[in-house]
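User: Hey, my collaborator sent me this sequence without any context and asked if I could get a structure. I don't really work with proteins. Can you help?
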Amino acid sequence: MAYKSHFKFSNSQRNGIFLLAILIVVFQCIYAFVDFSSESAQPDTKTLDRFRQQVDSLKRVEIDKNKPKVFPFNPNYITDFKGYTLGMSTVEIDRLLEFRKKDQWINSAKQFQEVTKVSDSLLDALSQLFQFPEWVTDPKPKANWVDYSKHPNQKGYGSKTYEQKIDLNKASAQELQKVNGVGEKLSGNIVKYRNKFKGGFISEIQLQDIYGLTPEVIERITNDFAVKTPRLVEKISLNSATKDQLVTIQHIDYEIAHYIIEQRTLRDGFNSFDELLKVKKFPIQKFEIIKLYLTLN
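Assistant: No problem. I've predicted the 3D structure and written it out in structure-token form, which is a compact way to encode the shape of the chain:
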């Protein structure tokens, strides 16, 4: 039996093989010499810059949001921790605390530096946050309020005498409306406030507590009206009052009552009402009203 070779091809097979070889060579040449890479797309730099700015802006907002916020403060009440967070050294903080132990008070940024010896750069940063009481920042003398119940013969503001004035505790809304600047709404507020208390006003100073009354309008009211029948109040002893007793006074809450007792203990008692102005968080603008309810005995 004769052996048949597997490498013998017919003419059509040879032609197919030849054509395949040519195609392979052609494609290899194309692959080797022709650049199939498409022209790379050029980035839109303006859009990218705008996007980067938006991302940077969001980052800054997030950083600012996470930064600890520092609010205005009275430098007399800086604690060890507060001083540390503000960038003060332990020596500088100790100087301030020693100064305060002597019951002395910082009343200006310059005095703060003299006591603590902080650097000029740190003082510049901190002094912008200093918040001193009104009696320090605005020491102008306030107009004196007259308690006409104690001085019945004394003349008040304007040309009217005490006798000529109408009793503020008995005045009608219509009578109050005769004052320039007092309309139906403000006269209603005055009467409503007066009726909150059995007996009405203690003093004209309480007009400051009525919403909508400006100092100018209050002055015009006191030209024509005076508290002639003041409400009787049982005054509380400032030097022996408990916290629960102090909070019954207008404008004093438990926190302020705590600081009053704390200051009273440090001072071994108050010698004058003016010492209340140095109590932490004391509502200085309401000082004259608070005094109506207190006695030093």
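In plain terms: The two ends are 144 Å apart (CA to CA). You can pass these tokens on to your collaborator as they are.
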